[in-house]
Amino acid sequence: MSTLPHIVFIVLLIAGLVQMAESQTPATPGEGTADASSADATTDVEAAAAEQLAAAGKRDLGVHDPSTIVKEGDRYWMFGTGRGVRIFYSDDLEAWHRDGSIFPRDGYPDWITDVAESQRGHFWAPDVVRHNGRFFVYYSVSAFGKQTSAIALASSPTLDREADDYGWTEHGIVVRTNEDSDHNAIDPAVLFDQDGRMWMTYGSFWSGMKLIELDPDTGMRLEDSPTHSLAWYDSIEAPAIYFHDGFYYLWVNWGRCCNGLDSTYNIRVGRSRDITGPYVDKDGKPMMEGGGSAFLGTEDPAFIGPGHVGVLVDDDGSEKLSVHFYDGADEGRPKLAVRALAWDDDGWPRSPGPGMETAFEGWDRKRD
């Protein structure tokens, strides 16, 4: 009988014994089971952050300085900072889609470099209102950290680019500031008061938040409209006004934006019986003297620096709050959040969420 089968048998037996021994060898400390435990812990933390962000109203849309959300037909629309003013839409307030820009790259207004020499069509912090059968979009033209700024207007009869009458008309500058001005003409927010008069609040740093009256027929500044001062703080911008139950509520942002994970934006609020003020916070401190009650801030570890309040009253009468925030689970990139807007027994707004005290031990924010 040949010895070859015996040799093959012995080789296979030895290989099997080696494999068995390796499978029974204890893992070196820090290897194997430790790696698995670490991976499980990381997964748990990331899941907790995702759960928190869902409770905070996160939408999977990258946007900075979102406008008020408006509705045309069954579709929701919103605008944001970006080249030519970015346009977004949603059919359910959950999933959002990009829909180009108001101005194409070869169609920016020719006056923008007169306002800010460095301007190349990156327009900031738009807002939108529907009036007289048109959508009026107000947007900011500026240079970062300077008062060389303007708020301008563009309008279209529809937001549906498939419609025959879709098309944007550029109306020019509504209000402008320069390096000698005591305030800064960016961050517009537009509304109608209870008497049907049209107003725009705006401002960033310097002497604070301002208010001017607009002509409802044209959307431009009403001739001889005075500039009203509404609020001041040493780092303040992004005002928005909303009427509720006899009061005008003024939201503003304190702190610094645009620093990703290190952003310190937080939203403050005050109220007044008159749209022109004076606005006071919950303690009665005037907002022109640095008053402002805390409304919404960082909800660690992932919901960072919310800003730019917008309020949507939906078809069913429910009130919804829109803001941007910096996503701690995505390297501090700006995202959209849509949250419930509620009111306490004293008539002050609140936005239910996971709470500012929320924290997850072990969360490691990834930095750029």
Name the helicity range: 10-25%
Largest sheet: 5 strands, antiparallel
Strand order of the largest sheet: 4-7-8-9-10
Radius of gyration: 27 Å
Could you tell me how far the N terminus lies from the C terminus, measured between alpha carbons in angstroms? 71 Å
Q: What's the CATH class, please?
A: Mainly Beta
- Could you say which structural class the secondary elements and strand pairing correspond to? mainly beta
So how many helices?
Answer: 3
The string of secondary-structure elements, in order, is: HHEEEEEEHEEEEEEEEEEEEEEEEE
Mean pLDDT, to the nearest integer, reads: 88
Hey, roughly how much beta strand do the residues contain?
35-45%
Task: Give unreliable regions as ranges.
Answer: 1-31, 355-368
Give the overall shape: globular
Describe what you observe in this structure.
With 368 residues, this protein is mostly beta strands. The protein has a single domain, classed as Tachylectin-2, Chain A, CATH 2.115.10. It has 3 helices and 23 strands. It has helices spanning 4-24, 33-55, 112-115; strands at 58-62, 70-72, 75-80, 82-83, 86-90, 96-101, 122-131, 134-141, 149-156, 169-177, 189-192, 198-202, 209-214, 228-231, 236-244, 247-254, 266-272, 293-296, 303-313, 319-327, 333-340, 342-343, 349-350. The strands form 6 sheets. Strands 4-7-8-9-10 form a 5-stranded antiparallel β-sheet, with no helix packed on it. Strands 1-21-20-19 form a 4-stranded antiparallel β-sheet. The termini are far apart. Residues 1-31 and 355-368 have low confidence and may be disordered.
